[in-house]
C-alpha cells in the first residue's frame, strides 16, 4: 500500500541488465530486493507497460505472481542462438522433433533426411535420390518414436504433382515401406503407431477432381491374404480446381485445459464478414434456360477464352449437381460441438481444401470413427449405397485467404493457421485466377472444441511469393508459445495467452520451419533457405549452462550445533532417556 520503494526505471534496469547475484553491486540490500520482487503492484505496472498489453487482458491463469510472469516472458523465450548446424547442402524445408524430444529430423532440397540426437550431433543421414525423389519436404515421428515418416516429391513428367511417403525404422535405419502420395503437398501423417494416411488424386474434368485418402500399414509385409495393408478412408469431390492438401490428425481427448483469452469483438466482426462473403459469391446460371437465335448468335461471337470459361462454369455446375446427388450426408451428431464426455476420444482428420479456386482457403474436418483406425475390413472402406460416390465434409472453416501453414497445440485443442489474406469483399470469377494475397501473414487460432476461430489473428511475419507460387511456411506450438517461419529472413515467437510477439530469430534467407522441443519449450530449432539449422535457447538456460559449478556451502556453526543437538535428542528418545 506504500507504493514501490524504487523507481520503475531502476527496477527494470536491474532486472534486464544485471545477473541475479549482482543486485548487491547496484546498491540494493537483500531485504530491499526481496521487497521489490514481492511488490505485485510494481511488477503488474511494469508488465503491462513494457509489453504494451491492454490492461483488459487478465494474467495467465497458471501464473503465480506478476514478477514471475514478467520473468517468464523475458527470461524463458528461446531467442539466443547457441549453435548453427551446416549438415545440409541445400535449402532446409522442415524440422520435426521426436515426442520425447531426444532427437529431431530435418528435410532438405538436397534430398536427404537427417536425424541428429539430443546433443545436436548427426546420428544418421539418408539420401532418397535412389528412389527418384526430387527432394524431401516433411517428416514426422510416430507416437512411440520407433518409426519415421518421410514425405518427398517424386520426379516425373513436366509439372508432375506426385509425391511419395517412405517409412524408416529408427532401430536400424532400414526402409520399411514406400507409399505413393498425390499431390505431394498432402504430405501425409501418422494416424497411430502403426498406420499412416496418404492421398491420391483423380481428375474427372478440367476443373473437377476426386481426392481419395488412404490408410496404410507402416509394415507392408504380407501376414495373410485376409489381412489388408491399405484401406480407403474417404473419397471427396473437389470443384473449381481445388484439391485436398496438408493432412494432419488431431486426437481431441483432452479439452480440460484453460481457455485462451477470447476476442469476442473480433469474433462478431468475423461473423459479419462471413455473411458478406456469402452475399458476394458468384452465382451460377441455370442449365435449363431455353436457347434462342439471338443467344446462339451471341455465343458464336464469343472468343475462345469466353467459350472456355463458359465450359468450365458448366463443368463446375454439373459437378455441384452430381455432388449433391451422390455425396453421403454428414452425420451431424458426430461432429456437432458439445460438452466433452468423460473418457471420450474424438479423432479429427484436418486438411486444407477450397471451393472457389485452386489455392487452399478452407480447413476441412472429418471425424475418424473407431472402426476406421485399422486396415481390417473392406479395402474400399465402409459399405455405402450405389448412389453415394463421395464422402461429405463434416465441417468447413473458411479462412478467406491463401493457407500456407498449420500446426496443432500440444493438447490438440487449438489449430494455428498461417494465411495470406485476400482483399476484403473480393469476388472470384475465374477459379484459375485467385485474388492477390497480402504480404502480411495472419496467424489464425481455431478452437477444435467449438470448431470456430476464437481470437484475433497474430501478425508480425511477412511473405512475398505471389499467389501462384506460394509455398508452405511451417509453424509449431508449445505449451506457452507459438513460433513460425517467414520470408523476411526471420522466425517469430508469440505468447499464446497475451497475443504478443516476443522475439525475432535472424537468418540469411527465408525461414521455412521452426520446431519446439516437446521436452523443453526453451529449446527451439529454425530451418532456412540459407541451408542452416539454428539452435536457440532461452537466456535463463544459457546462463545456467555457462555458470560454473558451485562448491557446496560450508555449514554454519549454528546449523551444525542444532543438527548435533537434534540427533542426540533423537538417540535419547530411542534409548528411553529423558
From TrEMBL:
Domain named F-box: residues: 6-46
Biased composition (Low complexity): 555-564
Cellular component GO terms held in the UniProt record: Cul4-RING E3 ubiquitin ligase complex; SCF ubiquitin ligase complex
UniProt-recorded name of the protein: F-box and WD repeat domain containing 5
Residue stretches of biased makeup (Acidic residues): 292-303
InterPro entries reported for this sequence: F-box-like_dom_sf, F-box_dom, FBXW5, WD40/YVTN_repeat-like_dom_sf, WD40_repeat_dom_sf, WD40_rpt
GO biological process, one term: protein ubiquitination
